[in-house]
Amino acid sequence: MDLTPSDAVRAAHLVEPVALAALLAGDAPPVVLDVRWALGRPDGRAAHREARVPGSVYVDLETELAGHGTPTDGRHPLPQVADLQAAARRWGVRRGSAVVVLDDVAGLSAARAWWLLRWAGLTDVRVLDGGLAAWRAAGLPLAAGEPEPPAPGDVVLSAGRLPVVDADGAAALAGGGRLLDARAGERYRGEVEPVDPRAGHVPGSVSAPTAESLDADGRLLRTAALEDRFAALGVGAGEEVGVSCGSGVTAAHLALALVLAGRRPVLYPGSWSAWSSDPARPVAVGADPWGSEPSTGS
Fold first, then answer.
1. CATH assignment of 167-275?
2. Is 35 a catalytic residue?
3. Mean pLDDT throughout 106-127?
4. Among the four residues 115, 163, 214, 229, which has the most C-beta atoms within 10 Å?
5. Choice among 245, 255, 256, 283 that is catalytic
6. What span, in angstroms and rounded, lies between the C-alpha atoms of 180 and 235?
7. Judging by beta carbons within 10 Å of its beta carbon (0-12, 13-18, 19+), is residue 149 exposed, middle or buried?
């Protein structure tokens, strides 16, 4: 049966657990990257050793999927492409490799690897829809113990294949209502702020918690539901829209949902962690995009 255009897009960016198991049993298995990370629980090595998709390689988001800079670069700036290439070779990624990324939080951290590797030139990178929970629910086997290191890869990466904006670019997008904030609503409104210098959001940005792109089983909503979601947020089909979050991690998941819905996401890598670290940048609080109490102070 021929795929519809939306089904083809979904198949290019997501893979189901049973389909992944079949690929792993085939002649040209993909490289499977385990990106277990969460705010307050950044190191997933122990969990990876305890239970993982067989043959998967642990990826450290903090050191391998992020660079280091000043506070106004954000908590997870993009890595240098040479560093990302060296990491990808350690993971066993070869020229022409297919890659599948997963985590245990419904793709919220794995999408960072999906976005980065596509930004760096790989074209066959998919997210395991539903993550490790979906793999378990399908009754598929898990491996445990100290993993064997993969054979080194030879992939060549080059930066800039997906669009990004800096703080000025994010401000311009927000001014036109075209910057979506992937954080939970309470952080957007400035009611809580667990890690960054100031609470609130970029003035003009629109609250779009990325968790609302998931169903009750932690899988991405069907394409029609995603299309409806983003249309309700004012983003039409084919339109360019900025994505932001706390530090550029879950914004990548929002970008994935937008791609599935036929929109064109532009990542603000520094996100709120960078914006809120610059005292010259204004802050809005409350549910309104422009804020009930805009301020410039820290």
1. 3.40.250.10
2. no
3. 97
4. 115
5. 245
6. 10
7. exposed
